[in-house]
Structure formats: structure tokens, C-alpha cells
Write a structure and sequence with these properties.
With 270 residues, this protein is an all-alpha fold. Helices cover 78% and strands 0% of the residues. The two termini are 48 Å apart.
């Protein structure tokens, strides 16, 4: 900013106007106030805070060495069940999310009520955590992998549907207009015009969400929705810290392996 009303020699350049500086200072004050209020609301107990390092060292001492015998008798089957829950949940989410993604894309579905309905469904799915979905489905279907699969699916619908709808809206319209000029049907336009353009994005979304669901399904067993979380919950309740360590190591290995597999698949097909 150049201060008006001064000669060329006396002019000074400033980065912000006075009004912009006031807004910046007000923003900083609001942020600092929010931090102070948050720290006061947390109500940290000093005795527990100062004793935490000693408790952590004691817990790590009880966790090591891990109980390797717990893997073949419990952890292995639970890990396989976790992968099944994530896979079934992801597939079900994709099946349900694609129609909603088509509805939310205004260039594909130029009908406002359907657009708003689809947005409401996507927001509803994303706003509820997978553990809350799991609690609801455990209450309906009982404990087990079915509740976990449905929780993963309903949590993933919002993620998959939103990204798929955005990919449809960003598609090249020249191809679509060419198909419309030939008198192609809506199905042909969708299959020949939109689908080839969004296919790489679709596979990327699918693999990325499956990777996320592997991690999320690992903790659903804490509320009775099956998977490795059941083994972790049992070990925690019985204070078998060496078994807890074995469960955590197994989860880390599986997550790292899934990340490697997803990366290789993405390189080959995307």
C-alpha cells in the first residue's frame, strides 16, 4: 500500500492497509482466546500429568516381550475377519455410493431436489463416526462381523459418493456434447462419455477407501462389531499387556502390508 497525499520521495510501501491489520490482529486474538478457553475446559489433572511418564514406562515394561503364542490361537483369525469386514464394507459402500454420486452431480442430474437429497445422504454418512454406526448396527443385528461390515459401508458412502460426484462434475463436457449431438441415450452418454473419464478416479477412490477401512475396522471390535478389535479389547480388559503388544504389532504389520499392496495396484492400473 502507498500512503496517499505524500510526495514521491516520502511515499512508503506497506503490506497491509490499516483495516486489514485490524482484522489480522482480531483474528489472532480470537485464536489465542479459543486456545486459552480450550485449555481451561480440558481440566488437566496435574498429578496424573506429572505421573504419566512413569506410568508409560511401566506399561511398556509390561508389554515387552510380546506374547507370540497369542497370534496363532486368536489374532490370525481376527485379522482375517478384519480384512473381510473392510472388503465387504467397501464393496457395499461403492454399490450404494455410485447412484448417490450420480444424483449429486448437477451436470448429470440437473434436478435440484435430487441434488439436495443426495447431498443430505452424503453429509449424514460422513457426520457419523464408524464406531457410532457400529453401535447402532450391533444393537440391531447383534455383535459380529455383519454389524462391522455395515458400519464400514455406511461410513464410507459419504466419502466415496462425494468424490465420485465431484469427478463426474469435472468431466470434459466436449465429449458429452458430441454424444448428445448424435442422439445418444442417457445410458450411452453415461457409459461412453462419463465413465471412461472418471474410471481412474474411481479406482483411486476405491483403493484409498479400502486402505482407510482396514484401519477403521481394526477398532470396531471394541464395541462388539468383530475383527481384531475383539482380541484387543479382551487383552485390555484382562490386563494382558504382552498380548496387547502382540495385537498392536500385528495390526501395524497388516496396515503396512495393505499400504504396500495398494501402492503397487495403483501404479499398475491407474
Amino acid at each position: 500500500m502507498i500512503i496517499p497525499g505524500s510526495s514521491l520521495e516520502e511515499r512508503q510501501w506497506t503490506r497491509f492497509t490499516p483495516l486489514e491489520r485490524i482484522f489480522r490482529y482480531a483474528f489472532y486474538v480470537v485464536i489465542c482466546s479459543a486456545i486459552v478457553v480450550s485449555l481451561r475446559t480440558i481440566e488437566v489433572i496435574p498429578e496424573f500429568l506429572f505421573d504419566a511418564p512413569a506410568q508409560m514406562v511401566d506399561m511398556l515394561d509390561r508389554m515387552w516381550p510380546p506374547d507370540a503364542s497369542y497370534y496363532p490361537e486368536t489374532i490370525h483369525d481376527a485379522l482375517v475377519e478384519t480384512i473381510h469386514i473392510a472388503t465387504v464394507g467397501t464393496i457395499l459402500a461403492v454399490v450404494l455410493a455410485i447412484p448417490i454420486g450420480v444424483m449429486v452431480a448437477e451436470n448429470v442430474t440437473p434436478y435440484k431436489p435430487l441434488n439436495w437429497l443426495a447431498r443430505f445422504l452424503l453429509v449424514s454418512s460422513r457426520s457419523i463416526n464408524s464406531l457410532v454406526w457400529a453401535l447402532l448396527f450391533v444393537a440391531v443385528f447383534g455383535p459380529g462381523p455383519l454389524a462391522g461390515s455395515l458400519a464400514i459401508a455406511f461410513r464410507s458412502i459419504g466419502f466415496v459418493g462425494k468424490l465420485f460426484g465431484e469427478a463426474l462434475e469435472e468431466a470434459n463436457h466436449s465429449t458429452i456434447e458430441a454424444l448428445q449431438a448424435t442422439g445418444a441415450s442417457k445410458f450411452s452418454i453415461m457409459y461412453m462419455g462419463y465413465w471412461p473419464q472418471v474410471l481412474p478416479t474411481f479406482w483411486s477412490i476405491l483403493l484409498f477407501r479400502w486402505d482407510i477401512n482396514i484401519r477403521e475396522s481394526a477398532v470396531l471390535g471394541l464395541v462388539g462389531a468383530g475383527g481384531i478389535g475383539v482380541a484387543l479389547s479382551t487383552a485390555l480388559e484382562l490386563f494382558y499387556w504382552d498380548r496387547v503388544c502382540m495385537v498392536l504389532i500385528s495390526m501395524l504389520v497388516v496396515v503396512a502390508a495393505v499400504e504396500l499392496v495398494v501402492t503397487q495396484i495403483r501404479k499398475r492400473i491407474i
